Amino acid sequence: MTEHELVALALNIRERAYAPYSGFRVGAALLCGDGSVYTGCNLENASYPCGLCAERVAAAKALSEGRRDFRLLAVAGSSKELCTPCGLCRQFLFEFAPQMRILCANDAGAWQAYGLHALLAEGFGGASLPGGTKD
């Protein structure tokens, strides 16, 4: 799957978002090492901490299917600004794929690529724990 196709998929899945409070729809498409793709959209809740971001929905779907080899993530928002993952999503993704690339897109499909390390400098991982290593 090309980068352009992955962004297009994120734009399409964005339409399934449940965002009655903010009106800000986000879609994500996650490409894994075997070529499989997992999608997600944001799901808001009246109790804001219960909401789920599109990036973590896509990652959770992949993880629940046994995929941990995240390669590339496309994130598409519903504004003219590029949509980057929130801090919580950056940390969540760092746990599984600190070297992954993220394609951050706007509502028109224009995008820019970032390394996760650039978005989450000095990220906290398993190796940060005393005696810890990542398995």
Which short descriptors sum up this protein?
Cytidine Deaminase, domain 2; globular; 21% strand; alpha+beta; 135 residues; 5-stranded mixed sheet; 4 helices
Short characterization:
This protein has 135 residues and is an alpha+beta fold. It has four helices and five strands; from the N terminus they run αββαβαββα.
Q: Any guess at the CATH architecture?
A: 3-Layer(aba) Sandwich
Shape: globular
Helicity, in percent?
25-40%
Report the CATH topology name: Cytidine Deaminase, domain 2
- What's the number of domains? 1
Judged by helices, strands and strand pairing, the structural class is: alpha+beta
Task: Write the element-wise H/E pattern from the N-terminal end onward.
Answer: HEEHEHEEH
Number of strands: 5
Distance between the termini: 28 Å
SS strand fraction: 15-25%
Mean pLDDT: 95
Overall CATH class: Alpha Beta
How many H/I helices?
4
What is the CATH H-level superfamily?
Cytidine Deaminase, domain 2
- Widest sheet: strand order? 2-1-3-4-5
Low-pLDDT runs of 5+ residues are none
Please outline the major beta sheet: 5 strands, mixed
Indicate the radius of gyration in whole angstroms.
Answer: 14 Å
Overview of the structural elements:
This protein is an alpha+beta fold. It has a single domain (3-128), classed as Cytidine Deaminase, domain 2. 27% of the residues lie in helices and 21% in strands. It is built from 4 helices and 5 strands, in the order αββαβαββα. The model has no long low-confidence stretch (mean pLDDT 95).
